[in-house]
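B., you asked whether I could sanity-check this one before it goes into the benchmark set. Here's the sequence:
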Amino acid sequence: MSVQILVQGKLSGVAQFLPASPRQEITTGAAESLLAGRSHWISLLTEIIPRALLAELGLSKMLLGSSGAGQFLVILPSDDRSQAEQFL
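And here's what the prediction gave me:
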């Protein structure tokens, strides 16, 4: 029986990345669009990073536990721990 580990990843710096801009001349609509766009990028990153990790290790996509809100959870065999640490 293989021992499995849970890997939780969290993107750091999300709080600093999300604000649209420190400049005052941006309109409310533009600021909302920037916030929505940046939120979408964070969401995409939390989908892509764990899937790329699984692909790099040659593991099934079914091992992706959850992703979103700047975080993800992946289930890995303990044998792949060192490779996962190098990747991340």
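One thing to flag: Residues 28-57 form the longest helix (30 residues). Otherwise nothing jumped out at me.
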